[in-house]
Design a protein that fits this description.
- α2 crosses α4.
- The chain has a domain of 76 residues: tRNA intron endonuclease, N-terminal domain (MutS, DNA mismatch repair protein, domain I).
- The protein is 32% helix and 30% strand.
- It has 352 residues and is α+β, with helices and mostly antiparallel strands.
- A hairpin with a 4-residue loop joins β7 and β8.
- It is built from 10 helices and 23 strands.
- The protein is elongated.
């Protein structure tokens, strides 16, 4: 190797260079972290600089070529190869990148470490690795508290990267509804409101149900909400009145995830949003901020899918959901319960 190369030594899961590296690599180019002994590089930083012929690295007194270094690093640091792919990509896009509370901190173009705040926290993951809901919720919460954005960098089997932004989502609408009352019947797996006048008003004012033949067909979650609010009375086939507890118990027998959907539906409606089935889009709900009337239905703003607290995301499924939402000009939002409160997490494609 050339005598001009700055030499470093493997030190656990870091590479330590002398103090002479601090100016050129840290001050000028944003690599590493100054320490008392000199400049400390993470393994991905060291691999990047080694591959570009900027430094040499020794292990037990022996210089390592890139292959030897890379193989050693993968043995010492789980996930190293994925982080290296993402680090290299972001650096070659012109970003300053440093290790952070997730995998990396990324600075905005024109910014650099020590001069400007980071813009993103980056979490790197393989497409094959399932991700628990809490593994996204907590980093997203931390990012918001630190006034950063959370970037999820997904590395596929060909080492291509798809970037997503994950963020807590506050959604609300302006559809306050004063709906008329009425009596409806619970049939096999849906509810029918028989009165033509009440059916028309409930659909026109609140965009509830699907009208047909002077009647209004309501979903289970719509019916539960209207029954709970005192707008609707529901009877069974024998004409016996159902309490909200009776109705919910029967609905759970019909629909396995009814309780989860009902909780999210109620929260969305209480936020003055219009909520309709999202089945055609592969989600539980499509959600509108406002609908002026059945003849003036805009594009819905959100697709909302309800997930349990212990939900695990499979990234190919997430990719399909986000891409579909984008193709129909909607935002993909996942709803979950947190200490009894419904929270929302948006995932969207990001182009760094």
């Amino acid at each position: 190797m050339s005598d001009e190369l700055m030499g470093g030594d493997f030190s656990g899961e870091k590479v330590l260079l002398g103090k002479e590296a601090t100016w050129e690599l840290y001050e000028q180019s944003g690599f590493g972290r100054p320490v008392a002994e000199g400049l400390e590089l993470s393994l991905v930083e060291a691999a990047y600089l080694l591959d570009r012929g900027k430094i040499s690295v020794r292990l037990q007194g022996k210089d390592l070529d890139f292959r030897s270094f890379f193989e050693t690093a993968t043995a010492r640091e789980a996930g190293f190869e994925f982080r290296y792919v993402v680090y290299k990509d972001l650096r070659e896009r012109g970003y300053y990148v440093q290790p952070g509370v997730t995998d990396f901190r990324v600075y905005p173009r024109g910014g650099k470490p020590g001069k400007t705040p980071a813009e993103f926290y980056v979490q790197v993951i393989s497409e094959r690795h399932p991700v628990a809901l809490k593994e996204l919720v907590e980093p997203a919460r931390i990012a918001r508290q630190m006034r950063k954005r959370l970037m999820l960098a997904v590395v596929d089997e060909e080492s291509d990267i798809t970037f997503y932004e994950v963020r807590e989502k506050g959604i609300s609408g302006d559809m306050k509804v004063e709906a008329p009352g009425g009596t409806a019947s619970l049939l096999e797996d849906r509810v029918i409101l028989w009165d033509p006048g009440a059916s028309e008003l409930l659909h026109e004012r609140g965009f509830y149900g699907k009208p047909g033949g002077g009647r209004l067909q309501l979903s289970l979650v719509e019916s539960a909400y209207l029954l709970e609010k005192g707008v609707l009375d529901v009877v069974d086939r024998a004409g016996e009145p159902l309490t909200i507890e009776d109705f919910n118990r029967r609905a759970k027998l019909i629909e396995d995830d009814f309780e989860m959907k009902r909780r999210v539906y109620r929260d969305l409606r209480d936020r003055n949003l219009v909520v309709k089935t999202g089945f055609k889009f592969g989600s539980h709900f499509r959600v509108y901020k406002r609908v002026e009337g059945p003849k003036k239905v805009p594009h819905s703003e959100y697709l909302v899918h309800s997930v349990p607290e212990d939900y695990v995301f499979h990234l190919p499924v997430v990719s399909r959901a986000v891409r579909l939402a984008h193709s129909v000009r909607k935002q993909m939002v996942f709803a979950y319960a947190d200490d009894g409160e419904v929270k929302y997490l948006e995932i969207r494609r990001l182009k760094p």
